[in-house]
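Q: Got a minute? One more chain.
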Amino acid sequence: MKPLLSPVPMNIKTTIGILRIIIGAMMLYHGAEVFNAVQMKEYAQSDMFKTSSSPALMPYIGKGAEFLSGLLLLLGLFTRIAAGILIVSMCYITFKIGHGKFWYEDQHPFMFVLFGLLFFFAGPGKWSIDHILFKPKSKYTTYK
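A: Always. Here it is, folded:
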């Protein structure tokens, strides 16, 4: 019972790693629509993109960003860059397309923004390519 009530983190790097993999897989799934020409054409013809300067390109940029950030997060490769892409694309969906109604109507995109912030500041956690490529140099940044 004592560890449950303690303010000390429990397996934080493992937890962040699991969350990163799950969020990455979810974004990869949503972004895979970039390869569906019919779906992309429907997005381009929707009211949300008709007023943009390039309605055919905007859905490809958005879905491409989802796919890229999902792939990078899933692998734990360039995690902070992937988190930045996720934050920007989901903020666009939340505040531009969804008109900022994140408290009730557009909670899912905004929750992805929050997860992006978590990965941006906390790093990739366990099981990441970042950990292999950029080995931590301090005892305070080791992954246990």
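A: The radius of gyration is 17 Å.
Q: Perfect, thanks.
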